[in-house]
Amino acid sequence: MRIDGNTRLVGIIGNPLEHTLSPVIHNAAFDYMGLNWCYVPLPVEHDEIEKALEGIKVFRFAGVNVTMPFKTAVLPFLDEVAMFAESVGAVNTILFDKDKLIGYNTDGRGFYTALSRDLGYDVRGKKVLILGAGGAARSVTISLAVAGCSRMVIVNRSSERARSLKEIIRRSSSDVEVQCLTPEEDYDVLLADSDLIINATPVFSFGKSGLRIPVAMLNKSQVVCDLNYSSYYSPLLEEAEARGATVMDGKGMLLYQAATAFEIWTGLEAPVEVMRVALLRALDEARI
């Protein structure tokens, strides 16, 4: 990598950023493509997000990724927001083009691409159960609804947040049957009847201190996903695989959302396999 007066800058806004893998993934892609670009972490304080975005303009960044806790906070300061990001109510990628900041959300596309490309899975007509109703769940459920799943069950501690997500899904696709439940309610039969099960919470354990997951109801006809990414399997995926289910963690979603951001900024096809190798190597070195 060379840094000079012609280097194009991109980066990631968030707080904290000590463990972000995005610089490794993107800089590997830039190096492979021979692009004079550099991706840098940009930690921002909670009350300085507007100043940070003005700085992006001042320093002529090509764009930035946005991570927690700013995916919603950036919205009032953008000049344009893509339709999907507007539906989700969150932005994770910003393009600076013609003096305008344009917001996108690539998380949903990242998850859908991981399912279809890595697993060869078609979501049309499938019954989905998702644990969680936060930002990740919103991106994923809306992408699946638009892709044609038939039923969606949202299990979330906050009934209000789950109902809010239900309305967002219905606005995106009126053909999807949506049901909301809390973890305390009995959803064993619904889980057993689901084709695709997704953990969109940060919970790694499913015992007394975590979510109630009736893992005995998992079966070999299902695909079970955990959006968390790690060098190690989550307990949910271990249980699912032991019962013959197909499993997928969050590495693919992270990879493909990054690839989509790369393409938004550069206009070039992302070197996905180069980015995948960089991601796996970084995870292994960090022992995350």
Explain what this protein looks like in three dimensions.
With 288 residues, the protein is an alpha/beta fold. Helices cover 39% and strands 19% of the residues. It contains 10 helices and 12 strands. It has a 6-stranded mixed β-sheet, with helices on both faces. Strand 7, helix 5 (135-147) and strand 8 (151-155) form a beta-alpha-beta unit. Helix 1 packs antiparallel against helix 10 (272-286), helix 4 packs across helix 9 and helix 9 (251-266) crosses helix 10 (272-286).
Question: What brief labels describe this structure?
Answer:
single chain; 288 residues; alpha/beta; Rossmann fold; 2 domains; 10 helices; globular
- Mean pLDDT score, rounded? 93
Low-confidence regions: none
Q: What is the H/E order?
A: EHEHEEHEEHEHEHEHEEHEHH
Approximately what portion of the residues adopt beta-strand conformation? 15-25%
Terminal-residue CA separation? 26 Å
The total beta strand count reads: 12
CATH architecture of the largest domain: 3-Layer(aba) Sandwich
How is the CATH topology of the largest domain named?
Rossmann fold
CATH superfamily of the largest domain: NAD(P)-binding Rossmann-like Domain
Rounded Rg? 19 Å
| Major sheet attributes | 6 strands, mixed
Class by SSE composition: alpha/beta
Q: What's the helix and strand layout?
A:
Elements: E1 8-14, H1 22-33, E2 37-43, H2 49-58, E3 63-66, E4 80-81, H3 83-88, E5 93-97, E6 100-104, H4 107-118, E7 127-131, H5 135-147, E8 151-155, H6 159-172, E9 177-181, H7 188-192, E10 196-199, E11 223-226, H8 235-242, E12 246-248, H9 251-266, H10 272-286
Parallel strand pairs: 1-2, 1-3, 4-6, 7-8, 7-10, 8-9, 10-11, 11-12
Antiparallel strand pairs: 3-5, 5-6
Helix pairs in contact: 1-10, 4-5, 4-9, 5-6, 9-10
